[in-house]
Automatic annotation (TrEMBL):
Record bears the keyword Coiled coil: no
Keyword Oxidoreductase: yes
InterPro entries with a match to the protein in the record: FAD-dep_OxRdtase, FAD/NAD-bd_sf, Gly_oxidase_ThiO
Organism: Salinicola rhizosphaerae
Superkingdom of this protein's organism: Bacteria
Protein name (Swiss-Prot/TrEMBL): D-amino acid oxidase
Amino acid sequence: MPDFLIVGGGVIGMMTGLQLADAGHSVAIVERGQCGREASWAGGGIVSPLYPWRYSRPISALSSWSEGRYPELADRLHEETGIDPEYRQKGLLYLRVDDVEQALTWAREVAKPLSRIPADALYAREPKAAPGFESALWMPTLGSIRNPRLGKALRARLMAMSNVTLHEGRAVVRLRAEGRAVRGVEADQGAIAAGETIVCAGAWSRTLLAGVGVDLPVRPVRGQMILFKAPPGLVERVVLKDGRYVIPRGDGRVLAGSTLEEVGFDKQTTQAAFASLHASALSIVPALANCPVEHHWAGLRPGSPDGVPRIGAVPGLEGLHVNAGHYRNGLVLAPASTRLLVDQLIGCEPIVDPSPYRLPA
């Protein structure tokens, strides 16, 4: 019986498993599909909230801690698995921001290198950006990661660890409650027992927890994205405008996203979203009009009322823990939110105050 059973094999679940395994614990991860193929695969990979000055302190605390961990994690995974997660720290350009002064005040308060740059500096950094902008906000330290490759690298590393077992293709039917304790799960191919159970099932976490009388306010929010096959160098860095963005990859491909849709668990793509995303991308980089769209997909974000994830022990149920509700910032917050939970699980000093993320009693 493993020390820890993690329900959900996304980036949150896999990073949790990696840290627990690094600490010498036995870990099992149960995933209804293949690890890293749901929301973790479908996102864009920007390693920051889109407009960080608009977020609450609990999100900012996790984001600030996470930001500096991705270069080291990407290097480690590349070395250990041969899969490059392609962490790129090329900065981010913000076009047409309404609350510039609020942004600059925030940057001074948290010592972030965010500045307003004139048009010549904007177009020197991104020559193919849409013409006509007189200035932009520039954050040089912002990075991005190629999230599908991050998921592949995490999965490969976990598969190589002798104290980790991946149960893929197994849907969890319910949590195994024994009185006021949870001791694993009932899955579609039989029970999996564990000392401690951690729910990291993203948008599906609420349904699982409801089975043991816990109401977790997490809902699915669909996000659609498109991928352009562009020549290398057409876009060099992340560019954001009016809540939409383009993200370049190392091979030249450019992601454009994303929508926010309250449609339940429907992951279908729509022509209306395609047209809207395509138009937004061209309004940022007009030259993308000459590049074919290779792919159009949708994922389900785990939306929470305030965007703050719930992290920690479930009150009143021994052996049950949760890490869910990251909304649009799962990849952004993953290193910190998983470390925060693991710290509590193994008795270390938490990296940040855990109280804002606790489930109510």
